[in-house]
Amino acid sequence: MEWMAYALATLFALLGLACLLLLAAGLPGTWVLLAIAFVIELIDGWLLPGDTVVTFGWGLLAVCAGLAVVGEIIEGLAGAAGTRMGGGTRRGMVGAIIGGIAGAILFTPLIPVPVLGMLIGAMLGAFAGAFIGEATGPEARGRQHNLRAAFGAAVGKLGGTIAKLAIGIVMWGLLVRAAFVL
Q1: Is 42 left (phi over 0), alpha (psi -120 to 50) or beta?
Q2: pLDDT at position 100, please?
């Protein structure tokens, strides 16, 4: 009945790739990946044959949870740092976050390259969100300032997303390897 274990591992690997696509869109793909692995770890005793069935192990899941937290911190700091380095305010940072998510969702169909389209959409959205946030604030400082803050937000979003995607790939690799090792 080893085929069942390999089928489960293959299904997890494919779902994990979809989670990596979520990351490129600025969505919580690392947490979805971790949740899927957690559920599999809970039910693998019922699905797979054998007395001591462990798909991932709780230690590996804890390590991956730590990596997910590190990814969130890096992404948050990178986006905020980019906006701040561009001279942006808190309002611009919030606009960049909201715009990044909206841009990834709205612009992706316009750029039909799977990961690249989401990433470009997220960057354009972060740029637009930061620009609008800065321009509509009570202390708006002019178009040049708004453009500088928006550019910083886009660069920060790109850097944070790339770092979080790299962490997600490491998590996916560790979990997939564990799933295929019987």
Answers
A1: alpha
A2: 82
Angle in degrees, CA 135, 126, 165, rounded to 5: 160
Cα–Cα separations (whole angstroms), residue 85 to 62, 96, 144, 148: 34, 13, 14, 9
Predicted TM-score (pTM) of the model is: 0.76
Cβ atoms of 134 and 95 within 8 Å: the answer is: yes
Residue 7's pLDDT band, with cuts at 50, 70 and 90, is confident
Listed by start position, the domains of the chain span: 2-180
The pair of structure tokens assigned to 8 is 């489960």
* Gap between the Cα atoms of 23 and 74, Å rounded: 13
Over residues 67-126, the pLDDT tens digits come to 999 998 888 788 778 888 888 888 888 888 888 888 878 877 887 776 777 788 888 888
